[in-house]
């Protein structure tokens, strides 16, 4: 019952309550993002949603305009504190996870949940093997099991198996534990960046912004 009904009701209620506070963040952070390089405030990232449906995930833009798309060897997006693609405000909002707060709008639209598997890139769909497609059984989350306990410290394939573990054990109390552990990790700024030299560049622009 929680997975099929109450989780969505709770998501919607909490997102609506948080929306006025997010508007305050928008008023403060938005102009800084714009005036640093006269670029757009938001980055609309295409992501895989429930049942494989592609949706636009909203983020505050943390990278310079037309930054190259760098990927790790496993296909996941490159993420490092000394990444030259990040703007000054972008480095701050990444560390504090403020760049993810526009996803409140995705929750209200029904694209995402507060807690669930973090959404993959659309091109990752064809890279799923075995039972990995199961991570698409539920709405992706703004945070999730991996973000609460590991952040960016484990490989993509291992994160998928953790996502499936979450789906199989999904409950109200597990979501509460993940929510509080996420809050602690964000406040401590633990494992936000991973310095991984095994990366490659893609022709696409602004990915992961």
Identify the notable features of this structure and list them briefly.
209 residues; alpha+beta; two-stranded antiparallel ribbon; 6 strands
- Put simply, the count of helices is 6
Q: Widest sheet: strand order?
A: 1-2
* Low-pLDDT segments, ≥5 res: 195-208
Share of helix among residues? 40-55%
Using only CA atoms, what is the Rg? 16 Å
> Which range does the strand content fall in?
15-25%
Distance between the termini: 36 Å
Estimate the global geometry from the Cα principal axes: globular
Structure class? alpha+beta
Main beta sheet strand tally, sense and closure: 2 strands, antiparallel
Which series of helices and strands comes N to C? Answer: HEEEHHEEHHHE
Domain count: 1
**On the 0-100 scale, what is the average pLDDT?**
86
Annotation, overall tally of beta strands: 6
What is the gist of this entry?
The protein is of the alpha+beta class and 209 residues long.
């Amino acid at each position: 019952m929680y997975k099929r009904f109450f989780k969505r009701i709770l998501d919607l209620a909490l997102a609506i309550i948080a929306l006025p506070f997010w508007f305050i963040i928008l008023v403060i952070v938005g102009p800084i993002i714009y005036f640093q390089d006269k670029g757009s405030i938001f980055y609309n990232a295409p992501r895989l949603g429930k049942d494989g449906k592609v949706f636009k995930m909203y983020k505050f833009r943390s990278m310079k305009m037309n930054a190259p798309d760098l990927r790790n060897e496993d296909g996941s997006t490159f993420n490092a504190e000394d990444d030259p693609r990040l703007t000054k405000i972008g480095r701050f909002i990444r560390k504090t996870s403020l760049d993810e707060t526009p996803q409140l709008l995705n929750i209200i639209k029904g694209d995402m949940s507060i807690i669930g598997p973090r959404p993959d890139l659309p091109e990752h769909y064809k890279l799923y093997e075995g039972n990995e497609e199961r991570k698409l059984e539920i709405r992706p989350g703004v945070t999730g099991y991996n973000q609460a306990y590991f952040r960016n410290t484990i490989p993509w394939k291992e994160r998928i198996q953790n996502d499936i573990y979450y789906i199989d054990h999904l409950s109200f109390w597990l979501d509460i534990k993940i929510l509080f552990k996420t809050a602690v990790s964000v406040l401590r700024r633990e494992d936000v960046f991973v310095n991984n030299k095994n990366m490659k560049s893609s022709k696409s622009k602004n990915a992961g912004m």
